[in-house]
């Protein structure tokens, strides 16, 4: 039996997409973990101004992803849009390399890089189309391609851990991010299939912008988006709480935070490759529910076990449960919006916005009422309610394609 991993390596378009997603992992690991340090401590932006940059980035990323997703379905001009957005990302990194400063920081991190982030959705839209010839391996191919980002993200974090230990300047992160962005542009230019010359059907939807947006606003679509946003908000809350919990735990340091996050990411890779084997036997909403339960167990345990050696054991359910939240929503939206892979991929940006808002509300409410333990429990409860709501909405459906 031919495995999805073999198919990805043997098929040019999937090899290219794995390269695209892998390069995005390098870019993300170079540019995003150190945003706050560079903006506030190196460039001297006030914390309020930095917060506004984050809000601007979130709005730009969502608007761009949705509009480009709809446009790519409308015109089927996916290669051209991918090249334009990759070029914008390279320009953003170059601006901070050659003209670093507060204005460049705002333009790069608030506008240019968020626009370029839509490449993620565009890549998985193409992946969906190219998988038409491999219906039995679709989930496995998608998981394998997505695993490339986890691998490169982890490797780049390890690289910067050593580089900073050797005295590297944090501003060099824009140089590595820029080089990866140029490589991404070159890869798309050289290997992304030309529009209208593919071996699979890519029929333009012809929908006007208003009609396409109206489909996203349908109650059955909005409900599922809200449920998945609640599920993935637990991941956002984990990234907020991890450093705070470890920093306030006696005997723990920033190195423990890095190790914990690295172990969680490390477990995700093999689980991503194994997950598709079970999708033929277990409905996707059920896997999302149990994955959420596993993930929430590590989130709730974090404040209680941070001082204990048992905390390292919790990286296993975190990695296993996290895979369900990382991989399954992609194909879920593709089945929800049949025939519009670009629009389906753009829903990931909308989901992230919902998750960010829910996580922020849970964090604020939890700290106002109690401490980190209550915050983690509150966020975990919201995530489980979201997963349960998704399961109830789709129970009895073999394929929740509503479009």
TrEMBL record:
The keyword Membrane applies. The chain crosses the membrane at residues 12-32, 48-69, 81-99, 105-126, 147-166, 172-192, 225-246, 258-275, 287-305, 311-332, 353-370, 376-393. Keywords: Cell membrane, Membrane, Sugar transport, Transmembrane, Transmembrane helix, Transport. The keyword Chloroplast does not apply. It is found in: Cell membrane. InterPro entries: MFS_trans_sf. It is a multi-pass membrane protein. It comes from the Bacteria. This is MFS transporter. It comes from Pseudotabrizicola sediminis. The lineage of its organism: Bacteria, Pseudomonadati, Pseudomonadota, Alphaproteobacteria, Rhodobacterales.
């Amino acid at each position: 039996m031919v495995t999805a991993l073999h198919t990805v390596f043997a098929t040019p378009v999937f090899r290219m997409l794995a390269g695209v997603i892998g390069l995005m992992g390098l870019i993300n690991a170079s540019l995003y973990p150190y945003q706050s340090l560079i903006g506030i401590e190196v460039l001297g932006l006030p914390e309020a101004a930095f917060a506004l940059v984050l809000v601007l980035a979130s709005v730009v990323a969502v608007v761009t992803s949705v509009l480009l997703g709809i446009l790519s379905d409308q015109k089927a001009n996916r290669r051209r849009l991918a090249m334009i957005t990759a070029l914008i990302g390279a320009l953003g990194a170059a601006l901070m390399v050659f003209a670093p400063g507060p204005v460049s920081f705002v333009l790069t991190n608030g506008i240019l890089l968020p626009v370029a982030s839509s490449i993620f959705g565009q890549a998985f839209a193409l992946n969906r189309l190219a998988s038409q010839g491999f219906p039995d391996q679709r989930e496995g191919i998608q998981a394998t391609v997505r695993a490339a980002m986890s691998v490169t993200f982890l490797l780049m974090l390890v690289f910067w851990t050593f580089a900073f230990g050797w005295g590297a300047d944090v501003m060099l992160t824009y140089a590595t991010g820029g080089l990866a962005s140029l490589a991404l542009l070159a890869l798309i230019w050289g290997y992304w299939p030309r529009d209208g010359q593919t071996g699979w059907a890519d029929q333009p939807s012809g929908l006007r912008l208003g009609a396409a947006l109206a489909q996203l606003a349908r109650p059955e679509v909005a409900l599922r988006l809200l449920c998945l946003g609640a599920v993935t908000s637990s991941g956002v809350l984990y990234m907020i709480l991890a450093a705070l919990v470890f920093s306030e735990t006696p005997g723990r340091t920033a190195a423990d935070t890095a190790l914990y996050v690295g172990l969680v990411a490390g477990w995700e890779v093999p689980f991503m490759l194994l997950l598709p084997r079970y999708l033929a036997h277990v409905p996707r909403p059920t896997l999302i529910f149990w994955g959420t339960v596993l993930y929430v167990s590590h989130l709730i345990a974090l404040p209680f076990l941070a001082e204990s050696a048992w905390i390292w054991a919790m990286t296993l359910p975190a990695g296993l449960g996290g895979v369900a939240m990382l991989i399954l929503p992609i194909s879920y939206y593709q089945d929800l919006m049949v025939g519009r892979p670009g629009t389906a991929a753009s829903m990931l940006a909308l989901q992230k916005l919902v998750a960010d808002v829910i996580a922020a509300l849970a964090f604020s409410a939890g700290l106002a009422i109690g401490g980190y333990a209550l915050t983690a429990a509150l966020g975990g409860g919201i995530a489980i309610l979201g997963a349960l709501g998704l399961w109830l909405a789709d129970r009895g459906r073999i394929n929740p394609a509503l479009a």
